Amino acid sequence: MLILSVESSCDETAVAVVENGRKVLADEIFSQVALHEIYGGVVPEIAARSHLEVITLLADRALKTAGVARRDIDAVACTYAPGLIGAVLVGVNFAKSAALALGVPLIPVHHIRGHIAANYLAYPELEPPFLCLAISGGNTMLVDVRDYTDMAILGQTRDDAAGECFDKSARVLGLGYPGGKPIDDLSKQGDDHAYELPRPYVNDGNPYDMSFSGLKTAVVNLAHHAEQTGEPLDKAGLAASLCRAVSESLVGRTMTAAAELGYGHIAVAGGVAANSRIRHDFEAACQKAGKTLYVPPLRLCGDNAAMIGAQGYYEFLAGHVADSSLNAYATMPL
């Protein structure tokens, strides 16, 4: 089954062709980083307009790269939630038009489910059930993947996502946007014990819930204090200490949940899964606990359409298809 898939939830426009949910024939991506860099973050209106300008070109390029004709496509999948509403609408409307023109089913895919499915592309042997930590700029959640379309959130952030914590910290340190990679690169030059930063623990309710707003504020306050008093700021040490704080919080909760559920397979997904400290700590923790770790290659950590095509295949098998009334949503439960 060949699925033409579309992703436009934030600042990457992507179109892919995926076969049977596991094989990527083409994955074309246009990054808007240069458009938003001068603003220090994503401008929703600019993002939506850029998606509109390039999405048709990317679709044609994806078909050409895959070596398939339009008549070969069996279904069209798209991210329909969550994301920047104007941006998501562009992808949804393009997908609806393509499905109608081709006379094939339309498959709506939740963006976070897509991130989880990126592991199916990297690891053909991976099958549910398993535990997955989904970490990105807008979401941080611990997911019990019971089956391909049956998932339950064990815990999630109460406020800021881990990726947002990195982005805001990078901005105050003058590292630019997006902040994940600059923070990661700088951290490799510093002492991860240079600063003692708070750990985002939540004492009430769900032990797997998280909070990163306090950690973000601590970094901002340290930077502002140094600027106002003229005291030196060890930026590399602060970046390294931040990565350690985030990683310890995420890895600890994930390993505890895996032990409680009795899962031997642990996956990590989303843009923040590209962070080298988090990847290293998960590898060490899983090796010590005798568990198998699945982390996508860097190219599949960020937003892409291949992951939407992968999850779209299993949504289709479960009968989750839509008609032309499909809408886009800024928020949507997993």
What keywords describe this structure?
alpha/beta, 18% strand, Nucleotidyltransferase, domain 5, 334 residues, 5-stranded mixed β-sheet, 10 helices
Describe this structure in words.
The chain has two domains: 2-115 and 303-317, ATPase, nucleotide binding domain (Nucleotidyltransferase, domain 5); 127-300, ATPase, nucleotide binding domain (Nucleotidyltransferase, domain 5), CATH 3.30.420.40. It is built from ten helices and ten strands. It has helices spanning 33-36, 44-66, 85-102, 111-122, 162-172, 180-187, 213-229, 235-261, 276-289, 306-317; strands at 2-7, 12-19, 23-31, 75-81, 106-110, 130-135, 140-145, 151-156, 265-269, 292-294. The strands form two sheets. It has a five-stranded mixed sheet with strand order 3-2-1-4-5, sandwiched between helices. A five-stranded mixed sheet has the order 8-7-6-9-10, with helices on both faces. The longest helix has 27 residues, at 235-261. It starts with a strand and ends in a 17-residue tail after the last helix. The mean pLDDT is 95.
Which regions contain 5 or more consecutive residues with pLDDT less than 50? Answer: none
Measured distance between first and last alpha carbons:
25 Å
Largest sheet: 5 strands, mixed
CATH architectural arrangement of the largest domain: 2-Layer Sandwich
Mean pLDDT over the full residue set: 95
Rg from alpha-carbon coordinates: 20 Å
Q: How would you name the oligomeric state of the polypeptide chains in this document?
A: single chain
Classify the secondary structure makeup into a structural class.
alpha/beta
CATH superfamily of the largest domain: ATPase, nucleotide binding domain
The helix-strand sequence is EEEHHEHEHEEEHHHHEHEH
Number of strands: 10
Q: Helix segment count? A: 10
What percent of residues are in strands?
Answer: 15-25%
CATH topology of the largest domain: Nucleotidyltransferase, domain 5
Q: What is the overall silhouette? A: globular
